[in-house]
Structure to design on (236 residues):
């Protein structure tokens, strides 16, 4: 596989506080890469720096061979690198359909109707509630909406930040089945999760972020078999 996203020596933070300390990682075309780490180690900061929301202090971000370091987040979206943020960040007072259509504001306008039909077919519950205010839906339905909105932008790589957070066990199963389906359709995914076991069973490769740096990496099978990781993250 060819590298779609390449991150080298990435440093970033807030004010004078450094959060990322030389992160190196890659996501290949068409694969699921899992990013693991406890709360507060820099996962969301990494996502936001990749996407141009936070400024990179040092290092580089390349996407499909194009340098994105220092580019505006609108340029990142235009390139096809789309983040579904933690906490969903939907527009609660807008309808489901309006939220989805906003996903194509920067990228995917030409195929908006086709993509909307595809997303509503993929998420029947969103189809049933297309005219409903998004804020009145359940947490699981709102997560579907957030992912559907991301898909409206025709992503080449989708960053999913804690997509299973706060969901019921049944909805978690549905979420991971959806992630597998998207990958089978050729979409590359960076999956940022605290559901360690299910994430490693879903992805191909993984990284473990600790104190702003990558401490472990390998195939998901290798990480699952690591005694240190099993003790730290799986309680085994």
């Amino acid at each position: 596989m060819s590298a779609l996203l390449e991150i080298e020596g990435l440093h970033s933070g807030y004010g004078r506080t450094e959060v990322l300390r030389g992160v190196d990682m890659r996501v290949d075309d068409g694969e699921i890469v899992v990013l693991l780490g406890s709360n507060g180690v820099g996962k969301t900061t990494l996502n936001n720096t990749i996407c141009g929301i936070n400024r990179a202090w040092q290092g580089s971000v390349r996407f499909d061979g194009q340098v994105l370091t220092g580019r505006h987040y609108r340029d990142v979206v235009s390139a096809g690198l789309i983040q579904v943020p933690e906490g969903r960040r939907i527009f609660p007072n807008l309808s489901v359909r309006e939220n989805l259509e906003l996903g194509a504001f920067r990228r995917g306008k030409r195929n908006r109707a086709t993509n909307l039909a595809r997303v509503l077919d993929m998420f029947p519950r969103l189809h049933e509630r297309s005219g409903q205010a998004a804020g009145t839906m359940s947490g699981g339905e709102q997560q579907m909406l957030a992912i559907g909105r991301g898909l409206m932008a025709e992503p080449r790589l989708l960053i999913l930040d804690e997509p299973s957070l706060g969901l019921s066990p049944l909805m978690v199963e549905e979420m991971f089945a959806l992630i597998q389906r998207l990958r089978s359709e050729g979409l590359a995914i960076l999956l940022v999760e605290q559901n360690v076991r299910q994430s490693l069973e879903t992805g191909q490769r993984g990284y473990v972020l600790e104190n702003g740096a990558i401490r472990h990496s390998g195939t998901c099978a290798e990480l699952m078999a690591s005694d240190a990781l099993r003790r730290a993250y799986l309680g085994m």
